[in-house]
Design a protein that fits this description.
alpha+beta; single chain; 16 helices; 26% strand; Alpha-Beta Plaits; 9-stranded mixed β-sheet; 3 domains; 25 strands; Beta-Lactamase
Length: 602
């Protein structure tokens, strides 16, 4: 295989990447391009490269603001052979081969030495300034990498710069293979002298260091130039390029499971068998300790990055308070389903079907608008310390009261529901806004439920289960029939009346209804924003409605109509009662129990 090798002014400014045959790759500073972090003259999308299998076709893109040089001249296109190179800024790009020579995995004599972490800790640094300078840059190198390939290339270049005696460095990983023996994957490698070609790490050494011993292991192989035990020349081989020694240090931590840092080099004197003795005399102590420290920093930073990614993902579903509980506690215990008192919010978009039909030619645009609409629901749920349990098409399910019981769970659920309603109403007054045509129907119910990690052993999600969830969904559907934005059950309404001042929320009983398909009647109420945020209904209007409902329930429908007529005509919430009275000719039916049966789910 063929690689593109980038080399800047400094030895550490270097990477090499395999060129795919027939596929275009982009050199540039954009996240999806092959980046060159040290080169300031590189545009976001600078050059397109296509490797044909024999030639590299180069094309300077129109977005490039700086020139490309080939054979000393500025070019917009060129074809490169094996000995050619091109230049951007101070960086040279040329072709290299990845064909490796034989590996010494199980060939010839090998002398081995294991160096424990405790032993490395006792070894002093003899060249501390150089190594510490490299180590101080390491966290930034790891954190600034936009993807794993960027991390691997920068890390290997950094290691070559920090280990003067190393001829080659590789980042390796054990992965499951056939049988009981894991295979060795080379995540990235590089050599100090690229002209010498590729190399293949010793599988035996990687297995010993990373898989079996989980400590730094040094191997020494007989060299062609090194005398054997009897003084005669040894004709065996080690690696392509006559590498005589190598060591591998494991990278610990779940985020780097099975990783190792592999370093190889040659003897600096003709007596190759003295390397292990030299190790005892601390000749390799700097290199071993340096690599062990790099491995430790790499494992730690990757673990922090992994936790940050997990926290970011979980932050889409859990508020910071809930997330803190989950991260601080034993995850298995915290996620174990248990029964608890919850308030469930079910929110559905209104007008989606019509928009889907009207905007059938721009479904991606519609999807973006729906995503923004769902984002409003998510934001309000999380901002009020709730849990986003699920998305069902254009609907969202949230709940409060888990993982720990919370005395104000219902109040916060009501505040979230009002926040969703008020946001959509505000956008309705802005014709150009992407969410101008959307409304929301919301149902809130409070009761016992099972919350936690629900699902199968292999696939689960944090959610909530129980009749209270079904009731919240039914209430949301009933908002269409009762023509109000938010419906709540009686336990939720009781909390609003007893614990939430009018400056936070108000509610009115709407009716006692029998939901379609159910036997038991439900007293439903409307959740309303504070008076200053709702110009439609004053407290006096609500008092008239409540008095009219009481008269309706006891069968005094003349009084009920008189009271309901005191409520403004634009209030659609009273239509259920007035419509039912008119449909029954202003007289309660025989056996009147105050319950209005609903003809559909909504």
């Amino acid at each position: 295989m063929t690689e593109l090798i980038a080399q800047g002014k400094k030895p550490s400014e270097r990477w090499r990447r395999t060129l795919p045959t027939g596929a275009a790759v982009i050199l540039g500073a954009a996240p999806d391009a092959w980046q060159v972090p040290w080169e300031p003259w590189l545009s976001r999308r600078h050059v397109e490269l296509i490797w044909s299998g024999e030639r590299l076709h180069l094309r300077r893109l129109e977005t490039a603001t700086n020139p490309v040089y080939f054979r000393g001249a500025e070019v917009t296109a060129a074809d490169l052979g094996p000995d050619d190179y091109f230049v951007i800024g101070s960086t040279q790009f040329r072709l290299g081969s990845t064909e490796a020579g034989p590996t010494p995995s199980d060939l010839g004599e090998v002398r081995s030495r294991t160096v424990s972490a405790q032993e490395l800790g006792r070894l002093p640094f003899r060249d501390a300034p150089r190594r510490l300078d490299v180590l101080t840059r390491l966290p930034d190198v790891i954190s600034s990498a936009t993807n794993d390939l960027e991390l691997f290339t920068q890390l290997v270049s950094l290691l070559l710069a920090g280990i003067p005696r190393a001829d080659a460095v590789a980042l390796v990983a054990l992965s499951p293979g056939e049988g009981d023996s894991p295979s060795v994957d080379v995540l990235h490698w590089d050599r100090r002298s690229p002209a010498e070609g590729a190399f293949e790490p010793s599988k035996r050494l990687v297995h010993e260091a990373v898989g079996r011993l989980k400590d730094t292991v040094v191997h020494v192989w007989p060299s062609r130039s090194a005398p054997g035990p009897t003084g005669s020349a040894t004709q065996g081989y080690t690696l392509k390029g006559d590498f005589d020694w190598a060591f591998c240090a494991p990278v610990r931590g779940e985020a780097c499971r099975g990783w190792g840092i592999y370093v190889a080099g040659r003897f600096t004197d003709p007596e190759g068998g003295t390397l292990l003795a030299a190790l005892d005399q601390n000749a390799l102590s700097d290199d071993l300790k340096f690599v062990a420290l790099v491995a430790s920093v790499l494992g730690s930073v990757r673990r922090v990055q992994s936790l940050e990614r997990q926290q970011t993902v979980l932050g889409q579903f859990f508020s910071p308070g809930v997330l803190h509980v989950l991260l601080e506690a034993d995850p298995e215990a915290a996620l174990t389903p248990h029964e608890t008192e919850v308030t469930v919010l079910f929110c559905d978009l209104r007008g989606f079907a019509r928009k889907a039909e009207a905007e059938a030619e721009d479904l991606l645009g519609l999807l973006e608008r729906v995503s923004k609409a769902l984002g409003v629901m998510t934001r309000e749920i999380l901002d009020h310390r709730g849990v986003v349990a699920d998305f069902l098409g254009d609907a969202a399910l949230g709940f409060w009261g888990w993982p720990l019981p919370e005395p104000d769970a219902t109040e916060r659920a009501c505040a979230a529901a009002l926040g969703i309603r008020l946001f959509y109403e505000a956008q309705a007054r802005r014709p150009g806004h992407p969410l101008a045509g959307f409304r929301a129907g919301i149902g809130l119910a409070t009761g016992r439920a099972v919350a936690g990690r629900l699902g199968t052993r292999d696939q689960g999600k944090v959610s909530v289960f129980g009749p209270v969830v079904n009731l919240a969904s039914r209430l949301e559907g009933m908002t269409k029939l009762l023509h109000v934005p938010i419906l709540i059950d009686e336990p939720t309404a009781r909390v609003v009346r007893e614990k939430m001042p009018p400056a936070q929320a108000r509610c009115r009983r709407l009716a006692r209804v029998r939901p379609y398909g159910l036997e038991n009647p439900v007293l439903v109420s409307e959740l309303l924003p504070p008076l200053e945020l709702d110009g439609g209904l004053t407290d006096e209007h609500l008092a008239h409605y409540e008095a009219g409902l009481d008269a309706f329930l006891r069968g005094d429908w003349d009084e009920a109509l008189a009271r309901l007529h005191q409520v403004p005509p634009h209030d659609l919430g009273k239509d259920l009662l007035t419509g039912f009275i008119i449909a029954n000719n202003h007289a309660p039916p025989a056996g009147w129990d105050g319950v209005v049966p609903l003809a559909s789910k909504g």
